[in-house]
Amino acid sequence: MIRSLRRQRIKNNIAESEQFRRRSFIGFLCIAMAMGGLAFGYFRLQVLQHQEYQLRSDANRIKPRPIVPARGLIYDRNGKLLADNIPAYRLELVPEQIEDIDKTVLDLKKIISLGNEDIEAFQQARKATRRFRPVVLKLRLNEEERAKLAINRYRLPGVEVVPYLTRRYPYENMFAHVIGYVGRVDAKDLEKMGDSKFAALSHTGKSGLEKYYEEVLRGEIGYESVETNAQGRPLKTIGMQQASPGYDIQLSIDADLQRTTIEAFGELQGAAVAVDPRTGEILAMVSLPLFDPNLFINGISHTDYRALTENLSRPLFDRNLHGGTPPGSTIKPFVGLAGLESGLRKPEDKILSTGEFFLPGVSRGFRDSHHGGHGWVNLQESIAQSVNTYYYKLAVDLGIQRFDAYMKKYGFGQKTGIDLYGENTGVMPSPESKQKRFKQAWYPGDTVNAGIGQGMWIVTPLQLAQATAALANNGERNHLHLLKAKRQGFQGQWQPEPLRASEQIANDQAHINAVKEGMWGTVNGSRGTARAIAVGAQYTIAGKTGTAQKVSRKGNISLNPNQLALNQRHQALFIGYAPAENPKIAVAVVVEHGGFGATTAAPIARKMMDAWLLPKLPPAQAPAEPVKATNAAPVPATPAPDTTP
């Protein structure tokens, strides 16, 4: 009994009540803190971070889609379309919406045809692009591929088939070196453009005018906001920033003259430029052989590219822009002008041509074009008959430093400034250039050779055309250019491209007239070297023939150029303008391994002048057919014997 009383606990109501109050307070405090934390969480989500989560919500619901503007079109001077856009479809991936890009690419490879080049280009572009921007995986999907992608669309989030406009060159090879071509945008292009928004572009200019006027042609990218459902299907457009289309550009080139020039060469290789001497507008610009720029638009195949790069004729090489040749006797009118301008010669001054010219103390002579010589000749006769001795002596009298100064004044040894990238400056025949190239000293014989356009000389057809146009335009040299006008939008007005200031190449108009008389005699004189092209002409031509020798004679034995290997045959040249009394066209023609200028290059120039000056036939209604490109190294026709340098 006593033990049970001891085990019985005595309740303390006051202590229990206090303990309950403490526990209740702690419980209510925890609940209050939890409610406060919950309220703060709601406040943070709905007030403090409202904008962030609103953007995330909109990103799930609203998809930004770039609007790529239509690339500007390219026309010739008469409105003929040289580069247009045609509708096509491409495959794009949005990396942000794809969990495993590599797996998605492999899945797509099972559905459509994907080459390694497509995948490599995609991976490079993806690295240079923000994750929320679409990246092109394949261009030019065909109908079968589009149908397969539509069927499998539900299991390919972030994969879109997008309509777009792709480039096309209707004349194919005719303007390949002038207009150039567009190609797929790569990482280097994006880096150069400097803004990731340009990742929306599928193509950019890679060469020619397409590259030079890229910023003018491509326009300004726009955006549209598209509301989508949970499966990513577009429901409606809820906002848009319009894209600005690229400018259309009109060239000074004439498509008909371009075609005539190409056909005039036949199977020969070379280059030709036609210029309006009054403005500097390029009327035709041809480099042969040709290639088809359409091959490059969506990525050229290895087979096609190898065929072009391994071709010994180098069809991708622009002979007008990047090439060059010794000018031969086409330089003589300009050397003659330098003699007049320097005061060393007067038009009536005569020199005796005996067939060879000797430097003091030198036993080996420099030959004239006629073995027996031309007798006494003045400036006009020396140009018309292409008398070497006149220019041998004049070059020596000028001295190489003064000689170079005058040639630079006429535009040689420097860029013409034409609106194309990569123009070659050529090489002036100077002691500095010889030392740099051959590590050799300059000799008096080098100056003699320079006087007839041989030796260290390198000029481009563009330089020859510009200098010839300056003579035709009474000494006023206009800058060469291809862009004639531009407009924004089909309904826009054409805005003529302003001309740059012209330059005078001579101080005395009488000196220009004297040189022009000599060039008139070349074609119309009884002993002119190009008199054959005057037969049947309905207008008067002035010009100068030239032959740049690839190999020299051995001792006193002359080589027959017709018996030489193709790569050792002379370059044939001709420069000229017409009508002689009021020039509207100036041309420069260079035929590789053509033999002689009078028999090979001059007839090509005559056909170009005929096409420009004679009444044209009514334009054909059918689309123009492209000229067939020549990719094999042709063997030129054997020219008639001619000793004109």
Tell me about this structure.
It is a single chain. The protein is of the alpha+beta class. The chain has 2 domains: about 60-230 and about 235-250, Penicillin-binding protein 2a (Domain 2), CATH 3.90.1310; about 255-295 and about 320-480 and about 525-615, Beta-lactamase (3-Layer(aba) Sandwich). Helix content is about 35%, strand content about 20%. The chain has 21 helices and 23 strands. The strands form 7 sheets. Strands 2, 3, 4, 5, 10, 18 and 19 form a 7-stranded mixed sheet that branches. The longest helix has about 35 residues, at about 15-50.
Sequence-ordered SSE layout with sheet pairings:
Layout: H1 2-7, H2 13-48, H3 50-61, E1 62-67, E2 74-75, E3 81-93, H4 101-111, H5 116-127, E4 135-138, H6 143-151, E5 159-168, H7 176-179, E6 182-184, H8 187-193, E7 203-205, H9 208-212, H10 214-218, E8 222-228, E9 234-241, E10 247-251, H11 255-265, E11 270-276, E12 281-288, H12 302-309, H13 332-342, E13 351-353, E14 356-357, E15 366-367, E16 375-377, H14 379-385, H15 388-398, H16 400-409, H17 431-438, H18 444-450, H19 461-472, E17 476-477, E18 483-488, E19 495-496, E20 503-504, H20 509-524, E21 542-548, E22 571-578, E23 585-591, H21 597-613
Parallel strand pairs: 2-10
Antiparallel strand pairs: 1-8, 2-3, 3-4, 3-5, 6-7, 8-9, 10-18, 11-12, 11-23, 13-16, 14-15, 17-20, 18-19, 21-22, 22-23
